[in-house]
Amino acid sequence: MKFITGKHLSRRTFLRGTGASVALPFMDAMVPAGRAWRDPAEGSTRLVCMMEAMGCAGGNDWGDSQRLFAPAKVGRDFEFETQSQLKPLEEYRDYLTVVSQTDCRMAEPFRAEEIGGDHDRSTAVFLTQSHPLQTEADVFCGKSIDQIHAGRFGQETALPSLELTVEPADRGCAYNYHCAYTNSQSWASATQPLPSIREPRAVFDQLFGAGDSPADRATRLQTKKSLL
């Protein structure tokens, strides 16, 4: 595109501006196949589980004594003390349920041979509360709570569940534990860990579909070009 000033406007710039300035009407094609249009206000039941791999500051006996995560008073009239890590959520307290007296005890060693492998077990225990089997050749843990939720409410959303991570897969598994324990928080069954997705493009394709052929996607990935 060329203006009377002699300056060129690139196709990419034009498309970006057009996308920002033109409001498209709702189209039937925007609704996932096989799903009826619903009022967004109705919403769907969703569960989000977030894991901080190395724990949180104060997530120990001292933190418990300082009430960093669990209010002193049980019930609806609880209060967040000044030093509480949950204090920023004060304005949302009417929507919060704080579950205290929980732990990750199933990640602790039960036998002498398991001493030292706490990190290798903790990731798998987080949502399953099952003590992982210590054999490098196979796995046995338990069905995770997010997959139990997906089995009950997964039909309400486009995908029953979506497992994401910001860290690369850990290949340095130790203490005779299978790498699946370290790399998987979600488990469809005691023997079926669900790998997490780290690549943003793969997440996008999972949610919205690739929209082109495998060859086109491979070419675009190599050239690192956007859809525009």
Automatic annotation (TrEMBL):
InterPro entries named in the record: DUF1552, TAT_signal
A Pfam family annotated for this UniProt entry: HXXSHH
Name used for this protein in its record: DUF1552 domain-containing protein
Biological source species: marine metagenome
